[in-house]
Design a protein that fits this description.
Structural class of chain A: mainly alpha
Radius of gyration of chain B: 25 Å
Number of strands of chain B: 12
Number of strands of chain A: 0
Oligomer: heterodimer
Order of helices and strands of chain B: HEHEHEHHHEEEHHEHHHEHEEHHEHEHHH
Distance between the termini of chain B: 60 Å
Largest interface: A-B, 71 and 63 residues
Helix content of chain A: 55-70%
Number of helices of chain A: 13
Helix content of chain B: 40-55%
Shape of chain B: globular
Largest sheet of chain A: none
Number of helices of chain B: 18
């Protein structure tokens, strides 16, 4: 009896958010899947059903494949580098300090460093773009080139064209993503580290473990949940990277250049969607991206599943 | 205990999947349209007369969407004033943006487009795409309407040659390319006088002069590396002057064998000479148009390729004594067209969307633009010529750059050409640009460039 009377109450609470979710998220998804089977141009409501043609074209689209590969590269490097850096810094700021008799604390000035590290996180993408346009500028007026030329590490007549160099451009974008992301994960990991009881560290100290051992044997396992969350978030960021690539890299309509060397799935999608008038085709790409992200998140959560440690 | 953990895990997993799904949702929902209906109410029409050839209703609102780029949008406000004089009761809504696609595309899909649009800039919706989607009003009535200044003359007869051809897509005149632009190389008259240089007429002179310029500590050539469109213009113009008008016709018809011709080879080899001789401004391959043009304004480079909008775009960065000067592309040995021949033609496409509520008003707006008063106010507020023949009186003061384009245009006479493949084969333009970037960065050689562009031409012909 009591169990049953609970349901109307729960349903009453859920109906509005579920309806909103269905209208604003699920319905566009379904529409997109529908459009992906048409030759919709994106500029009017006229379209014809073409079956799986968009999907079969997709497989032979070298630019799309190239973009996919770039996303995979980001997927591998972005989470690893960001998490390692964030963990390293968080460790130093919270438990890395030594020498005092009080035991566990961060390196000197850690409160200040926390603000410094977190700062990039508050900048919007638009500001990042302006900032890094100046950093990567291809003549001696750029920050990086300016410094390298001043240090005589680079010939002023042959400056490095960071974002126009096919072998550098993707890594330049990766560097921005890492730079702007580390601060957030540092704070996330800091919070998790502070919730670890000091006694555990003190016990480790008494047993004579060094910094490295404390990190790998104590901190890492106790932070596993946070790392897992960070991984999923970073994987999403790696699947996206749209704003930076489209605003910073060369290439007609949404960047991706030089010669498609920084193309990501979303830039190829947008170029087809808005510039080339192949919106049906772009929707097929959208569906593929959706599938990939779903598979990715399931795999990530499976692989990183471990025994939980309670304390 | 066990169930407790499972439930928490399940919730967590669901959350994570939800988080993953959200960003892709934003990507996907960009694709989803609102599914607006096709119901377009046919607007009531006023009586057609000589003064009102399209039957504009006096109090119908006019909705104007302008690309706010190199020309700004003050000129459009001038047009609106002129329109308002004719129809004082009509409310005019003025929107100016750099992101035409973002504002226009949802309105086209929703069936409620503006009445007249300047569909230009980096985020323009390509005209071939709009034409295929049947979103453009046929503007032939505009051509046949009496002109504002002299009702006995049709608008058609007040236009510069080539305007109608360029505005014709798929056999119908659907876009008014309003600004008359010449393309070529630009230099500073002051810098050249200072060093006693004279503008070269042949490519050989240009190359030998480059050595001299370099000695003076200046880079001979800059280009807008991040946007390879500009260097494409230089390459294609060299080839057209060498191969003649037939060559251009074949290119516009997407005949891929043009790239096997000696003309194409001569042109690409000529441009590659700049790279080989190290004549490029350091870093120019990665610079935006503003960055490279500003470096040129700072006398860091001698020549830069561009269209005639350059002067207005660089107004703030140009020193007052710079003496911006235009010249056609230098001649190659065996050129079929004379040195004075240049790329010139209309651009800045204005359209009236097919489902516009006040399409008649949109066309009337264009008729106003094509009046002498319209052309003059454009020349004054945007520093550029329009497609209106003799549109500017002698009393109008032009800036040095614009003045030099008028001189060049007079010298060119009938030898003015204008490729149309840019309008009809967007993908060729993109692929050629990628190849050109690689060539300018010396990562590929002219032979590879020709091979890639030939393949791109075949691809464009297939329409993929």
């Amino acid at each position: 009896m009591r169990r049953n009377s609970k349901y109307p109450f729960i349903v009453g609470f859920l109906i509005v958010p579920v309806a909103l979710y269905a209208a604003l998220v699920l319905w566009p998804y379904i529409q997109t899947i529908g459009y992906s089977f048409t030759d919709w141009s994106g500029e009017s409501q006229k379209m014809n059903f073409v079956g799986f043609k968009n999907y079969t074209t997709l497989f032979s689209d070298t630019v799309f494949r190239q973009a996919l590969w770039h996303n995979i590269l980001l997927l591998i490097f972005l989470p690893v580098i960001t998490i390692l850096l964030a963990l390293f810094f968080a460790f130093l700021l919270n438990v890395g300090g030594r020498g005092g008799t009080a035991g566990i604390h961060g390196v000197r000035g850690s409160a200040f460093y926390k603000v410094v590290f977190f700062f990039p996180q508050v900048l919007s993408v638009a500001i990042l773009v302006v900032l890094f346009e100046a950093v990567y500028r291809s003549d001696s007026g750029g920050l990086l080139n300016g410094i390298l030329i001043k240090l005589h590490l680079e010939n002023a007549d042959k400056p490095i064209e960071w974002l126009s160099d096919p072998s550098l451009v993707l890594w330049c974008i990766l560097a921005i993503l890492v730079w702007s992301g580390v601060g957030f994960y540092l704070v996330l990991f800091s919070a998790a580290m502070q919730s670890i009881p000091k006694e555990i560290y003190e016990a480790a100290l008494l047993d004579g473990s060094g910094r490295g051992q404390t990190f790998f044997r104590v901190t890492m396992p106790l932070l596993w949940d946070s790392i897992q969350t960070a991984w999923v978030y970073l994987a999403i960021a790696a699947m996206d990277a749209f704003a930076l690539v489209s605003a910073l890299t060369p290439g007609v309509s949404y960047g991706g250049g030089p010669d498609h060397h920084s193309e990501v799935l979303s830039t190829v999608l947008m170029r087809n969607f808005l510039y080339a008038g192949k919106s049906g085709y772009a929707c097929a790409m959208g569906v593929i991206i959706l599938l990939l992200t779903l598979i990715l998140s399931i795999v990530t959560l499976r692989v990183t599943r471990r025994e939980r440690i309670e304390f | 205990m066990g169930t407790e953990f499972n439930r928490r895990d399940a919730v967590k997993r669901a959350l994570a999947i939800g988080v993953v799904a959200i960003p892709s949702a934003s990507l996907l929902s960009a694709c989803a349209s609102s599914g607006g209906g096709d119901s377009s109410s046919t607007p009531s029409k006023a009586a057609v007369s000589k003064g009102n050839p399209f039957g504009v209703e006096a109090n119908t609102e006019l909705d104007v969407l302008i690309f706010k780029g190199g020309f700004g949008d003050d000129y459009a406000k001038q047009f609106e004033k002129l329109y308002g004089k004719e129809y004082p009761k009509a409310k005019i809504s003025h929107n100016a943006t750099q992101n035409i696609t973002g504002l226009l595309q949802p309105r086209l899909n929703g069936g409620t487009p503006p009445d007249v649009v300047d569909d230009s800039g980096n985020a323009q919706i390509k005209l071939d795409v709009l034409q295929k989607a049947d979103q453009l009003t046929d503007l032939t009535p505009l051509l046949d309407a009496p002109s504002v200044d002299d009702p006995s003359v049709k608008v058609r007869d007040t236009l510069m040659p080539g305007t109608i051809e360029l505005g014709t897509i798929g056999g119908k005149f659907v876009t008014l390319q309003y600004v008359y632009t010449v393309f070529g190389l630009w230099y500073s008259g002051k810098l050249f006088k200072q060093h006693g240089w004279t503008a070269p007429k042949t490519w050989a002179d240009f190359i030998s002069m480059g050595a001299e310029i370099k000695k003076a500590g200046i880079s001979p050539f800059a280009h807008q590396g991040k946007y390879p469109y500009y260097i494409n213009v230089a390459i294609v113009d060299l080839a057209v002057k060498n191969g003649g008008m037939d060559w251009l016709t074949r290119l516009d018809n997407l005949d891929e064998t043009v790239w096997d011709d000696a003309a194409a080879k001569a042109a690409i080899n000529a441009v590659y000479e700049i790279v080989q001789k190290n004549y490029l401004l350091p870093g120019t391959n990665g610079m935006t148009h503003i960055e490279s043009q500003t470096a040129w304004n700072q006398y860091k480079a001698a020549f830069i390729p561009c269209g005639a909008w350059l002067e207005n775009e660089q107004l703030k960065a140009t020193p007052s004594d710079f003496e911006m000067t235009f010249m056609p592309m230098p001649s190659l040995p065996g050129d079929k067209l004379p040195f004075d021949a240049l790329r010139g033609g209309a651009n800045e496409p204005f359209i009236v969307p097919k489902k516009a509520k006040n399409a008649a008003g949109g066309m009337e707006f264009m008729r106003v633009m094509l009046s002498k008063a319209g052309a003059t106010s454009f020349a004054q507020s945007a520093n550029s010529l329009t497609v209106v023949k003799d549109g500017i009186g002698d009393d109008v003061q032009l800036r040095p750059g614009t003045k030099s384009t008028v001189t060049a245009l007079k010298a060119a006479g009938a030898n003015v050409f204008n490729p149309t493949y840019l309008q009809t084969a967007s993908s060729l333009d993109v692929d050629m640009g990628n190849a050109s970037s690689e060539l300018m960065a010396n990562r590929i050689k002219p032979d590879e460039w020709l091979k890639r562009v030939k393949a791109a031409t075949v691809k464009a012909k297939k329409g993929s």
